[in-house]
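ugh ok fine here u go
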Amino acid sequence: MALPAWDHPEPLAVDSAPVPEYGTGSLADLLPTLAAGMAVPGMTAAIPELTEADRNCVFLIDGLGWEQLKAHPDEAPFMTSLLTSSRGGSGRPITAGYPATTATSLASVGTGLPPGAHGLPGYTARNPATGALMNQLRWNPWTDPHAWQPYPTVFQLADAAGVHTAQVSSPTFQNTPLTKIALSGGTFHGRLSGEERMDLAAEQLAAGDRSLVYTYYAEVDGKGHRFGVDSDPWRGQLMYVDRLVQRLAEQLPPRTALYVTADHGMIDIPFDEQHRIDFDEDWELRAGVALLGGEGRARHVYAVPGAEADVLTCWREVLGEQFWVASRDEAIAAGWFGPQVDDRVYARIGDVVAAARDDVLIIATEREPKESAMVGNHGSMTPVEQLVPLLQVRS
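structure:
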């Protein structure tokens, strides 16, 4: 008598992942659309719902996803009142890009390019020149920023076209490599308090007949990582930044469009073995792996030479019901990193790329103790991580 076949669910299909809206509604499309409306050469109005303005301001709130904002109307009454204005009055969000993480998203915002072109494809990625992991948020170990990301920023192109261009952020970020390759062009103004940033952003908008101003606030993300996105500290930060948005909106000079957006959303992951899979304790996942990059919900896996196919097979068998698991070429073909990937970026992407669908993390308690202890996480292509607001106020 024949034995029954082993009933094993099929792994998630690579092409079933909800790819970001590159080219029509992603973070990479925002500044080119605004710059095109200010007649900056070479820029394309990629987000069709937006209309032109002489002065444009982007206020990026780190970590404030669309779903988190909609779930907290009491803490964010002003931004909640703007939900219907999102994406040019369509009331819809845009997408962050993959992976939905700060270094990648800020590079997409500033360059107007998807990750496959600007070349910051994750929180950590392998440097093909050295074979070592590089942290692209902290820029460690050091590498030449302009060799790593050679394209001009939209701010630089706008400044060259005669647009008054400025960034208003924490003084801490003024000379960082990430700022240099993603957010430079025009003048940088460092201010410590949120209120000072809002006031100065309004002043900078008024300083030119055509102006492009960027400002940023980080602590919504910080409190989410440490305490979770429904904690009292996180709610307190949301209340504070809601007041900042209103403060800036009430000071806009004439002919201005203010856009409030974010670099990613966030999801809280329970602290148990079911939801947190420890790579450092799992011999199957470690087999044949030379380097583990990315972050818990968006992993780049670099195989020992010759073991690429075996690692892909193993990761699919172990994780394929909870993660979209793809080879490098499959992820590129599916458009995860944008419509094309530059040659210099190709080997920065993992031999295997794993993006979480379920409420689960691949942590590494020995290699990444701090990251493994975070409550709130992000990185993948799920709506809670990908969807970000594009709230609008016009004067």
